[in-house]
Write a structure and sequence with these properties.
There is one protein chain. The protein contains 21 helices and no strands. The chain is an all-alpha fold. Among the domains are: about 80 residues, no CATH class; about 80 residues, no CATH class; about 60 residues, no CATH class; about 55 residues. The longest helix is centred in the middle third of the chain and has 30 residues. The N and C termini lie close together (about 5 Å). The N terminus is likely disordered.
Length: about 425
């Protein structure tokens, strides 16, 4: 099983880039500046390999990166045979590669030998052949199957390509974020399936570019609305627009959009400052923490200290309406875990029983929501959208660890995901 190593990935990538430049495949003694000793060169190569291991394999399951990462570790050992970790990682990498290759090539071979395959088995065979080829492109079984399945591959690619145009039209026809989500999900699934067996497919690339441009237009509309609302201190409206923009971006990319992140920080910092001035410390604390989650700055840290100092003598019962509004807002935004935590934290601070009961009553709303999340998670599981199902069910068990059905489905999901990744 892949293990995520606790390193500062961005820092290591920067360090590697500065040291290694663009020489991604050159040997170690050509890569590194001459002023470093062999031990120093080895350690820098190892850190680069570790960063790539975490990013390419653990986070992105990019099997094609295995040769490059292996080179980093072997070069490390060539420079420093006594390096304390390089051999461990090299062994782990080789074991991973061998296990994954065996799983993928065996399944592809088994399916290729069948006289009659069902429709989905053709695609499953081609996908596993591609994954095996990413690891060992010149293995005899891989070469044999590439030749014997070539006609099937062309037919599968053509079948998927024929579905692109109607799927694209369905996305482009929608001009609102809330309505584009469903057709966009279908389009992304189709593109992912096509690119998984034909990574350089021209039609897939062209369609992705057109979809990205359409989504970017929707995002800019939402960002402009957020800017206008923020300039008028209509913070809730600005937040709603930014959340719409963020959902649109996440539908086409896992990378955060810096423009949206900048505005989120500005929104939450200004919102916290406004609430602090109004002595609404509950909301001020919530918003400054959101600002810090986006970017940890000295001004935001200083504002949080000021809020905490001013709130040290606060009477929470006097703020019950604000606390309830904050919890209701979290529930409305779908942040059920934060809402549950806020209820538990603030209930202990309230001295008036009636106020505590009003707050605790919100738990029933959250319980209704997690029951719905459970149902959605099971539906997604049955539709084989395992990652989305897992995200739903994780919220359920975070709030209610005793929810046995959700825990059972999570166990099945984790088994499915490990099997799909060959672990």
């Amino acid at each position: 099983m892949l293990r995520f190593r606790p390193i500062l990935l961005p820092m290591l990538l920067l360090l590697s880039a500065a040291i290694l430049g663009s020489c991604a495949t050159t040997r170690a003694n050509q890569l590194l500046a001459s002023q470093f000793s062999d031990v120093e060169k080895a350690n820098r190569l190892f850190l680069d390999g570790l960063a790539q291991y975490n990013h390419e394999l653990v986070e992105n399951d990019n099997l094609k990166a295995i040769p490059t990462i292996r080179t980093r570790f072997t070069d490390t050992l060539a420079l420093d045979p006594e390096h304390p970790q390089a051999q461990e990682y090299l062994d782990e990498l080789n074991t991973l590669a061998a296990n994954r290759f065996t799983a993928h090539v065996d399944l592809a071979w088994e399916l290729s030998r069948k006289e009659v395959r069902e429709g989905h088995e053709d695609y499953l065979m081609l996908l596993n052949l591609k994954l095996a080829a990413d690891i060992k492109p010149l293995h005899p079984k891989v070469l044999i199957m590439k030749i014997s399945t070539n006609k099937v591959r062309k037919a599968q690619i053509l079948l998927l390509e024929e579905q692109l145009e109607p799927a694209r039209h369905a996305v482009l026809a929608e001009k609102e974020q809330r309505r584009v989500a469903a057709p966009l999900a279908a389009m992304n699934k189709l593109l992912a399936e096509l690119e998984a067996i034909d990574p350089d497919n021209r039609l897939a690339s062209e369609n992705r570019q057109r979809i990205d441009l359409h989504i970017a237009t929707l995002v800019q509309t939402d960002v402009r609305q957020a800017d206008q609302a923020l300039s008028e201190n209509r913070f809730a409206e600005a937040e709603a627009s930014l959340m719409k923009a963020e959902r649109s971006v996440l539908a086409i990319s896992r990378e955060k959009n810096q423009e949206i992140e900048d505005r989120k920080y500005s929104l939450y910092f200004n919102w916290a400052s406004d609430q602090f001035s109004a002595k609404r410390y509950q909301t001020a604390t919530e918003k400054v923490n959101l600002a810090l989650a986006v970017r940890e700055t000295s001004e935001a840290l200083n504002l949080r200290r000021q809020i905490n100092q001013a709130a040290s003598v606060r009477n929470y019962d006097d703020e019950i309406d604000e606390i309830l509004q904050s919890v209701d807002a979290l529930i409305q935004r779908g942040n059920l875990t934060a809402a549950w935590q806020s209820i538990n934290t603030n209930a202990a601070r309230l001295r008036v029983t009636a106020n505590r009961n009003r707050l605790l009553a919100r738990r029933s709303t959250i319980n209704e929501k997690i029951a719905a999340l459970y149902t959605q998670g099971v539906q997604l599981y049955n539709e084989e959208d395992y990652e989305a199902a897992r995200a739903k069910l994780l919220v359920v068990v975070q709030i209610n660890p005793e929810y046995e059905q959700a825990q059972a489905y999570l166990t099945r999901l984790n088994t499915k995901l490990r099997a799909l990744s060959g672990q």
